[in-house]
Design brief:
Radius of gyration: 16 Å
Number of domains: 1
Shape: globular
Strand content: under 5%
Largest sheet: none
Distance between the termini: 22 Å
Length: about 130
């Protein structure tokens, strides 16, 4: 299994660039909609999970430097979805947005496919 490069992962870097470009250059100039409210939510797992897993590895909580496992992706997806869309909104007397959770899920699925692309390509090439 290939080594995961945490802060140097291309999806992590692309996500931070996309987030910054959207936040600073696009959002101020667009009407309310996807780019304003949900685009950056797609990047939650690709941008937040690598630093958390790096921290886990350095604290001895993660034994390998493999790409994020599906259980790690799903566990953090559930945790952050509950935190950002249920716990914090309740504490701040506001409401969570289920569309945000859908964006987190889409980003997590894309990230999981990216991080395990070699496995999928190998499986596809064995079938043909």
């Amino acid at each position: 299994m290939p080594r995961f490069h945490y802060f140097h992962d291309p999806l992590f870097v692309a996500g931070w660039l996309a987030y910054g470009i959207n936040r600073c250059l696009i959002k101020p100039h667009v009407a309310p909609g996807f780019m304003m409210f949900h685009f950056n939510d797609l990047w939650l797992i690709p941008c937040a999970l690598p630093p958390v897993l790096w921290l886990h590895a350095h604290l001895g909580l993660r034994a390998q430097d493999a790409p994020p496992q599906p259980s790690e992706i799903a566990g953090h997806l559930v945790f952050w979805s509950l935190l950002f869309e249920w716990i914090l909104p309740k504490a701040m007397h506001s409401s969570g947005d289920p569309v945000d959770v859908a964006a987190y899920v889409i980003g997590a699925v894309i990230a999981g496919l990216w991080w395990h692309r070699q496995r999928w390509f190998a499986a596809c090439s064995r079938q043909h």
